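Onboarding guide, step 5: your first structure request.
Type a short instruction followed by the sequence, for example:

Predict the 3D structure of this protein.
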Amino acid sequence: MPNRMPDLFGRATVVVREHGDLRQQVDWLRELCVRIVDDQAPAELAPGVALTRFLEQLRGHFATEESPEYFGALAEGSPRLIRRLDQLRAEHAQMLTTLESLSALAAESPEPLGLAIGLGQFLDRLAAHEKQETLILQEYFLWDGIELQLGADDDPLQ
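The system replies with structure tokens like these:
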């Protein structure tokens, strides 16, 4: 269930904080990839368990982002972002499907090298995705400030 958040700036702050938490998890999972390849994955936290936990964290994060209070507010405030926000939503669905597959592979009988490579590729994709989200947020606040200074009907690029 998405977090209830105050105004858009407060919501953005929550999401940026979540991005930081995700980066810590991504760093840990990258280390796990190395340990999987070296056959040194900790027995108490098998890769399948780690991926299942990360999948749940990512589902919650994506739900927060896709909420009417966040992506919806961005789209309402800047209709020019709608297409890009829709693309991010589609990527969320694709990434969750990919992570579910990796989690199932890890839980069944993982081929360590294949799992590590697939997970590494997924983490690269997630990092690129999160960067796009950050750029959209920066653009939203930058354009909002420019529009306030110039007037809503002025186009600063013309």
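Each response can be followed by summary notes, for example: The chain has a mean pLDDT of 82.
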